[in-house]
Structure formats: structure tokens, C-alpha cells
Structure prediction request, 173 residues.
Amino acid sequence: MASAAWEEEEWELCYDGGFVFKRKKRKQDSSASAPALPTSDPEAEQRQLRERRKRALLKLKDQYQRELDQWQRMSHKLQAMDNRAQTQPSPLSSSSMESAKPAPPESESACRQLIDDLLIQAEAQEAILQDLSNVCDMIATLCKAQEERLNQSLIDLPVWATSRALMAYFSDD
Prediction:
């Protein structure tokens, strides 16, 4: 029952010249909710148009700034990972030399040291892989958001606002 009420709130039934369809309800701007009185003053119309453009551009600027900040954070994380990888001593080179030498059976402490070195190396590699996985997840999220924005911009085209406009657009060839 609750889901049916939610669905009714999110969708609206539209009838347009013989076509009946459902579409998502559009979010209405509080400033646009007041009915616009038809004005014959071209200066007022131009001023309103400039205000709408300014709001749209500021919204777009904020969106791009957030995206740039995300990319900068990811870049800093990658640089930090690179610095950590370079500053860590490479136990692989020393351990490969140790493994090339046949170890005497009585040097149990040398085997333990080798195991400890390999364990430290595996943990460092695991941390690097985890960091890379997190960065890849963030990039995938950004790409998905960009794809959704592109899809939404295509859906919101005024050509497709009504079925009549769509039919008129295609028949104007």
C-alpha cells in the first residue's frame, strides 16, 4: 500500500492528443511555482531571462567545481600511494638474494625473518591494491554520474516534452 502511494506521487498520467503515458513528476522550483503574469515589458522579460541563465550557470559552475575537487582528491591519493610505494624498502631484492642461497637447516631465525619480510611485502601490496580499488570505485561513480547527466539532458530536450512536439519535429522534414 505504501509503495503504491509513493509510486503515484512520483509519476503522473499525461494525455496528449490521443497519447496516454506516464512520466515522472518534475521537480518544481519554488520561484517558478508562482504563476507568471504575462507582461508586455520586454525589459522585465530580459531581466528574468538573465536571472534564469545566471542561476543555471552558477549551478553548472558548482557542479563542475565539485567534480574538479573530486578529481584533485583522487590525484592526491594516487600521488600519496606512489610516494608510499617508493619510500618502502623493497624486501623483494633482499629476499630473492636470501632465497638464492641455500639456507642451512639450523638457521631457523633466518627463515622467520624471510617469512616476516614476505608478510610485510604482501600487506603493503594489499594496501596498495585496496587504495587502487577505492580510486577505481570513485572513478566509476563519477563516470556513472556523468552518463546519467548526459542521459537526462537528452530526456529533457524540449523536442520531446510532448508527443505533439515530437511528431511535429519529425514531420517538419
The two ends are 48 Å apart (CA to CA). The chain has five helices and two strands. The beta strands are 11-16, 19-24.
